[in-house]
UniProtKB/TrEMBL annotation:
InterPro entries according to UniProt: A/G_AdeGlyc_MutY, DNA_glycosylase, Endonuclease-III-like_CS2, HhH-GPD_domain, HhH_base_excis_C, HhH_motif, MIG/MutY, MutY_C
Protein name as annotated: Adenine DNA glycosylase
Catalytic activity reported: Hydrolyzes free adenine bases from 7,8-dihydro-8-oxoguanine:adenine mismatched double-stranded DNA, leaving an apurinic site
Enzyme nomenclature, EC number: 3.2.2.31
Segments forming domain HhH-GPD: 48-199
Cofactor needs: [4Fe-4S] cluster
GO molecular function annotations of the record: 4 iron, 4 sulfur cluster binding; 8-oxo-7,8-dihydroguanine DNA N-glycosylase activity; adenine/guanine mispair binding; metal ion binding; oxidized purine DNA binding; purine-specific mismatch base pair DNA N-glycosylase activity
Gene Ontology BP, a term: base-excision repair
Listed Pfam families: HHH, HhH-GPD, NUDIX_4
DNA sequence: CTCCAGTCTA
DNA sequence: TAGACTGGAG
């Protein structure tokens, strides 16, 4: 008994057949770059369609072909002329690569695009997926595409819960795509995957009732079409920590003027304890707080208050507030001011600090 | 505002 | 593996 390879396990002829049948009856057949095997026209459309929607490309494709009807014409044209006909489509690297590619095809291949996806992928502006699309549509090569549409369709149908941009996941998607390739009818299959992603399996509000893959779709079965594919994990913003002193004496709290630039610039705030992390609530931290509090008077006792987290656009600040009770005042500088806790709502304080002090002013909450 | 998209480059 | 490119969708 021969052991099944991963490739065999992923293969499923009924998948491609469902896509092909749907494409023939419900797919798109009349786009200007369809119904041709002219690799030049196909290549041009694929490059224009990178990062660009069909509707936008429609306005450029015909004009471009009129001016540059063959790859030779394009190769011979001055680059300003090429750029001018691309102007407005964006991603101008594509236009520069397009021109360079045309020259290479003329010089290296006598003006005939290679049919081998591996050779196509060596040309400027043509990556693995675009190479496969050109080869499939021009010579019917059995090559797999993997663009945003296919990633979305696969993520949903196969219930892929990992981020498709991650290398391991993307490699697995490619393997799956190759295993699922039909023996014949690659053109319809490839076009079908594109059309499915563009017209039914859309990013938001997919039209599942019309989808030929509905019965085999994991996301549909589990009601997770809105969650798949999972979006790029937010890279964790840096986290910072600060210990703040809540020095209380006679119904007043000690505030400190902050530097005019930087976070909370120019506002009043609570004195910050530097020299140790703000997160720890232990004897070492308490000792630092006692030492820091001593510059404002005679420290009676210190008490850790409930820590809070403040989220900025670019980082997360963990605040460890420490209440410091004084038995005598002394040492505060001109940057400091004693503020009546009753009137704390009027102080120019950062929102999280004001919230903290307002809660502190409420009797009973912090003993 | 954030997310997303193929290819190329750092 | 992250970012640049550029514009559209949400």
């Amino acid at each position: 008994m021969k052991r099944l390879t991963e490739f065999d396990q992923l293969a499923d002829p009924t998948f491609s057949q469902a896509v092909i049948d749907w494409q023939r009856s419900h797919g798109r057949h009349t786009l200007p770059w369809q119904n041709t095997t002219d690799a030049y026209r196909i290549w041009l459309s694929e490059i224009m369609l990178q990062q660009t929607q069909v509707a936008a490309v429609l306005g450029y494709y015909g004009r471009f072909l009129e001016r540059f009807p063959t790859v030779q014409a394009l190769a011979e044209a001055p680059s300003e002329d090429v750029m001018a006909h691309w102007s407005g489509l964006g991603y101008y690297t594509r236009a520069r690569n397009l021109h360079a590619c045309a020259k290479r095809v003329v010089e290296q291949y006598g003006g005939i695009f290679p049919g081998d996806p591996a050779l196509l992928a060596e040309l400027p502006g043509i990556g693995r997926s675009t190479a496969a699309a050109i080869a499939a549509f021009s010579v019917g090569a059995r090559a797999a595409i993997m663009d945003g549409n296919v990633k979305r369709v696969f993520a949903r149908v196969f219930g892929i819960e990992q981020y498709p941009g991650e290398k391991r996941v993307e490699d697995a998607l490619w393997r799956r795509a190759e295993a699922l390739l039909p023996e014949t009818g690659v053109e319809s299959y490839t076009q079908g995957l594109m059309d499915l992603g563009a017209t039914l399996c859309t990013r938001s509000r997919p039209d599942c009732p019309r989808c030929p893959l509905r019965e085999r779709c994991v996301a549909y079965a589990t009601g997770r079409t809105a969650e798949l594919p999972v979006r790029k994990p937010k890279k964790t913003s840096p986290e910072k920590r600060a210990a703040l002193l809540v020095v209380i004496d006679g119904g007043q709290v000690l505030l400190e003027q902050r530097a005019s630039s930087g976070i909370w610039g120019g506002l009043l705030s609570l004195p910050e304890v530097d020299g140790h992390l703000g997160g720890e609530v232990d004897a070492v931290a308490a000792a630092s707080v006692v030492a820091a509090g001593a510059q404002f008077g005679t420290v009676d006792e210190v008490e850790a208050l409930r820590p809070l987290v403040h989220v900025f656009t670019h980082y997360k600040l963990h605040i460890a507030p420490w209440q410091v009770r004084l038995s005598a005042r002394g040492g505060a500088t001109g940057r400091h001011v004693w503020w009546d806790l009753q009137a704390i709502a009027d102080a120019p304080l950062p929102a999280p600090v004001k919230k903290l002090l307002l809660e502190l002013g409420r009797p009973g909450l912090f003993g």
